[in-house]
Automatic annotation (TrEMBL), chain A:
Gene Ontology CC annotations of this record: plasma membrane
Name assigned to this protein: Cytochrome c-type protein
Any GO MF annotation of the entry: heme binding
Family as reported in the entry's similarity comment: Belongs to the NapC/NirT/NrfH family.
Organism the protein comes from: Bradyrhizobium macuxiense
Automatic annotation (TrEMBL), chain B:
Pfam families xrefs: NapB
Keywords, alphabetical: Electron transport, Heme, Iron, Metal-binding, Periplasm, Signal, Transport
Species name: Bradyrhizobium macuxiense
The family this protein is said to belong to: Belongs to the NapB family.
Protein name per UniProt: Periplasmic nitrate reductase, electron transfer subunit
Length: 212, 156
């Protein structure tokens, strides 16, 4: 055999990968001759639980205030600013944590956002905003991204808690009641149009529509 | 002997006086019943007046008070939340009173296109009002009342 092998030239890498794939598909297509159907079904079921459960747990872990503030970029900048606002402490003790506003709650949208966030992991690894100065310089750009996202989904993350239907404007201050009747109920504007900077400090607002 | 007695008496007198003064409960509107040498409990925070109704000025030059809550309003180098309603171009949508034209004037009396930098920090003069009983009474009367007293029914 070794004589024959030495005479026939070894096929190229691509060709070998290709033949391996063909062989793999061939094996996958063939019915199992070793494991019973019961074992295969059960193993598939258990593996499914482990993988799906693990995936979801991973998703949940990355969706907590603790995870977000484990990076100093978040902890030292935006988290400090959140602390003085009504979304952090208030009379009824309900807190909106980071993902409540920054990650969609709906599954498909959530996965889409999580995939986008891989760019943020890249930014973290390469120190995109690892100093206060860099953060302040990028602040408007970062804020514009979030405002655009809220504008595009009609402030969905606000509306997960605050709904126009359950808003009792008689309990609001006169000027809030007028503004909500005129702009929110008619759908002319969405939450983020007026309520910018309620959870974090504002960037330099020159050039942002509606600001000086 | 008498001199010594006098010194002792004086010392006792001063010490006693200080003690009484310190222990005295001086009930003032601002301090409350807390003794002078102690710090009383902080008064509860009062809610902000939030009726959005204009308040009458006590004298013509008074900066109008803010008739609404301004909790969390950012006024700094980067942005001014007040101007997002009270700026000239924003008043149509907000129906808020426009920043007075006097605020467009720089220190040389020249009118600028927008609010002058020296008038940018609104809360230096304009302040919101707490809903509370004034701790100290006040007998201020406005100029109309004074003129009316001088010449009842006179024109002004």
């Amino acid at each position: 055999m070794s004589e024959v092998d030495s005479k026939v030239p070894r096929p190229g890498l691509l060709k070998r990968i290709w033949s391996f794939l063909i062989e793999l598909i061939d094996v996958l297509m063939r019915p199992s001759t070793v494991f019973s159907l019961g074992v295969l079904v059960l193993a598939g079921f258990v593996a499914g639980i482990i993988f799906w459960g693990g995936f979801n747990t991973g998703l949940e872990v990355t969706n907590t205030e603790k995870f977000c503030t484990s990076c100093h970029e978040m902890r030292d900048n935006v988290f400090q600013e959140l602390k003085s606002t009504i979304h952090f402490t208030n009379r009824s003790g309900v807190r909106a944590t980071c993902p409540d506003c920054h990650v969609p709650h709906n599954w498909t949208d959530k996965i889409a956002r999580k995939m986008q966030a891989s760019q943020e992991v890249w930014g973290k690894l390469f120190g995109y905003i690892d100093t206060r100065e860099k953060f302040v310089d990028k602040r408007l750009e970062l804020a514009l991204h979030e405002w655009a996202r809220f504008k595009a989904n009609d402030s969905l993350e606000c509306r997960n808690c605050h709904s126009a239907d359950s808003m009792d404007i008689t309990k609001q201050s006169p000027r809030a009641a007028v503004a909500h009747q005129r702009f929110l109920f008619t759908g002319e504007k969405t939450c983020i149009d007026c309520h910018k900077g309620i959870a974090h400090h504002l960037p330099d607002m020159r050039g942002v529509p509606g600001w000086q | 002997m008498i001199r010594k007695l006098a010194i002792v008496l004086l010392t006792v007198g001063i010490a006693g006086g200080i003690g009484t003064l310190a222990a005295q409960t001086l009930s003032s509107g601002l301090r409350g019943p807390a003794p002078l040498n102690e710090e009383g409990p902080a008064p509860p925070m009062t809610p902000m007046r939030n009726s959005a109704e204009k308040e009458v000025r006590n004298y013509p030059e008074q900066p109008p008070v803010i008739p609404h809550s301004i909790d969390g309003y950012q006024i700094d180098l980067r942005s001014n939340k007040c101007l997002s309603c009270h700026a000239r171009a924003r008043t149509g949508e907000s129906q808020a009173p426009m920043v007075s034209i006097t605020h467009f004037m720089d220190r040389d009396g020249q009118f600028l296109a927008s609010v002058s930098p020296r008038r940018y920090f609104c809360t230096e003069c304009h302040v919101p009002q707490s809903v509370t009983d004034p701790p100290v009474s006040n007998d201020f009367v406005d100029v109309d009342t004074l003129l009316d007293r001088a010449t009842p029914g006179g024109k002004r």
